[in-house]
Amino acid sequence: MRKGWRRVGFLRARRRVEVVPVDETFGLDLEQLAHERVEPADNDSGRIEVLPDGSVSIPIYDEVLVVTRRTVLKERVIIRKEIAGRSERVQTELRREHVDVTVEGDAELTGDFDEAA
Protein backbone atom coordinates (compact mmCIF):
# COMPACT_ATOMS: atom_id res chain seq x y z
CA MET A 1 0.00 0.00 0.00
CA ARG A 2 1.42 3.39 -0.98
CA LYS A 3 1.04 6.34 1.32
CA GLY A 4 0.95 9.85 -0.03
CA TRP A 5 -1.20 12.71 -1.15
CA ARG A 6 -3.58 12.45 -4.05
CA ARG A 7 -6.00 14.97 -5.45
CA VAL A 8 -9.65 14.11 -4.92
CA GLY A 9 -11.34 17.47 -5.45
CA PHE A 10 -11.48 21.11 -4.40
CA LEU A 11 -12.70 22.83 -1.29
CA ARG A 12 -13.31 26.56 -1.26
CA ALA A 13 -14.11 28.64 1.79
CA ARG A 14 -15.21 32.20 1.16
CA ARG A 15 -15.84 35.09 3.50
CA ARG A 16 -17.04 38.24 1.81
CA VAL A 17 -16.28 41.77 3.02
CA GLU A 18 -17.76 44.82 1.32
CA VAL A 19 -15.42 47.81 0.88
CA VAL A 20 -16.85 51.22 0.00
CA PRO A 21 -14.33 53.86 -1.13
CA VAL A 22 -14.81 57.34 0.38
CA ASP A 23 -13.36 60.53 -1.06
CA GLU A 24 -14.85 63.55 0.70
CA THR A 25 -13.51 66.76 2.19
CA PHE A 26 -14.56 67.73 5.68
CA GLY A 27 -14.03 70.94 7.64
CA LEU A 28 -12.09 70.46 10.84
CA ASP A 29 -12.35 72.81 13.81
CA LEU A 30 -9.64 72.56 16.43
CA GLU A 31 -10.16 73.65 20.01
CA GLN A 32 -7.22 75.15 21.83
CA LEU A 33 -6.80 76.46 25.34
CA ALA A 34 -5.67 80.02 25.94
CA HIS A 35 -4.84 81.54 29.31
CA GLU A 36 -3.89 84.86 30.78
CA ARG A 37 -2.78 85.93 34.24
CA VAL A 38 -4.48 88.95 35.82
CA GLU A 39 -4.27 90.65 39.20
CA PRO A 40 -7.20 89.91 41.55
CA ALA A 41 -9.80 92.62 42.06
CA ASP A 42 -10.25 94.20 45.51
CA ASN A 43 -13.58 92.39 46.00
CA ASP A 44 -12.34 89.01 44.66
CA SER A 45 -14.28 86.06 46.14
CA GLY A 46 -11.26 83.75 46.06
CA ARG A 47 -13.34 80.93 44.54
CA ILE A 48 -13.38 79.29 41.13
CA GLU A 49 -15.76 81.29 38.95
CA VAL A 50 -17.36 80.81 35.55
CA LEU A 51 -17.27 84.10 33.65
CA PRO A 52 -20.17 85.28 31.42
CA ASP A 53 -18.31 84.24 28.23
CA GLY A 54 -17.94 80.66 29.54
CA SER A 55 -14.30 81.04 30.60
CA VAL A 56 -13.23 79.62 33.95
CA SER A 57 -11.33 81.81 36.40
CA ILE A 58 -9.19 79.87 38.91
CA PRO A 59 -7.64 81.66 41.90
CA ILE A 60 -3.96 81.02 42.63
CA TYR A 61 -2.87 81.38 46.26
CA ASP A 62 0.50 82.22 47.71
CA GLU A 63 1.30 81.79 51.38
CA VAL A 64 2.73 84.76 53.19
CA LEU A 65 4.46 84.35 56.54
CA VAL A 66 2.76 86.54 59.13
CA VAL A 67 4.32 85.54 62.46
CA THR A 68 5.32 81.90 62.52
CA ARG A 69 4.09 78.74 61.04
CA ARG A 70 4.45 75.08 62.06
CA THR A 71 3.30 71.94 60.30
CA VAL A 72 1.97 69.12 62.48
CA LEU A 73 0.68 65.70 61.51
CA LYS A 74 -3.09 65.76 61.78
CA GLU A 75 -4.17 62.41 60.35
CA ARG A 76 -3.48 59.80 57.67
CA VAL A 77 -5.77 58.67 54.92
CA ILE A 78 -5.49 54.96 54.16
CA ILE A 79 -6.81 53.77 50.83
CA ARG A 80 -7.45 50.06 50.35
CA LYS A 81 -8.64 47.95 47.51
CA GLU A 82 -11.56 45.76 48.49
CA ILE A 83 -13.03 43.05 46.31
CA ALA A 84 -16.72 42.28 46.63
CA GLY A 85 -18.21 39.37 44.72
CA ARG A 86 -21.65 39.52 43.20
CA SER A 87 -23.67 37.94 40.42
CA GLU A 88 -25.00 39.99 37.58
CA ARG A 89 -27.27 38.90 34.74
CA VAL A 90 -26.26 40.02 31.25
CA GLN A 91 -28.66 40.02 28.32
CA THR A 92 -27.31 41.05 24.91
CA GLU A 93 -26.90 39.97 21.31
CA LEU A 94 -23.73 38.52 19.83
CA ARG A 95 -22.57 38.75 16.21
CA ARG A 96 -21.44 35.64 14.39
CA GLU A 97 -19.68 35.28 11.10
CA HIS A 98 -20.34 32.33 8.82
CA VAL A 99 -18.18 30.81 6.12
CA ASP A 100 -19.66 29.44 2.90
CA VAL A 101 -17.87 26.20 1.88
CA THR A 102 -18.04 24.74 -1.63
CA VAL A 103 -16.82 21.19 -2.38
CA GLU A 104 -16.16 20.03 -5.92
CA GLY A 105 -15.05 16.59 -7.03
CA ASP A 106 -14.83 13.45 -4.90
CA ALA A 107 -13.72 15.28 -1.73
CA GLU A 108 -15.88 14.81 1.32
CA LEU A 109 -16.60 17.53 3.86
CA THR A 110 -16.71 16.45 7.49
CA GLY A 111 -17.41 18.54 10.55
CA ASP A 112 -19.99 21.22 11.33
CA PHE A 113 -19.99 22.90 7.89
CA ASP A 114 -23.06 23.37 5.75
CA GLU A 115 -22.16 22.83 2.12
CA ALA A 116 -23.18 25.70 -0.13
CA ALA A 117 -24.58 24.97 -3.54
Short descriptors:
4 strands, two-stranded antiparallel sheet, 117 residues, mainly beta, elongated
Structural features, described:
This protein is mostly beta strands and 117 residues long. The protein is 0% helix and 14% strand. The chain contains no helices and four strands. It has a two-stranded antiparallel ribbon. It has a two-stranded antiparallel ribbon with strand order 2-3. The mean pLDDT is 78.
Distance linking N and C termini: 35 Å
Helix tally? 0
Strand % is: 5-15%
Instruction: State the major sheet.
Output: 2 strands, antiparallel
Query: Could you say which overall geometry the principal axes of the C-alpha atoms support?
Result: elongated
What is the H/E order?
A: EEEE
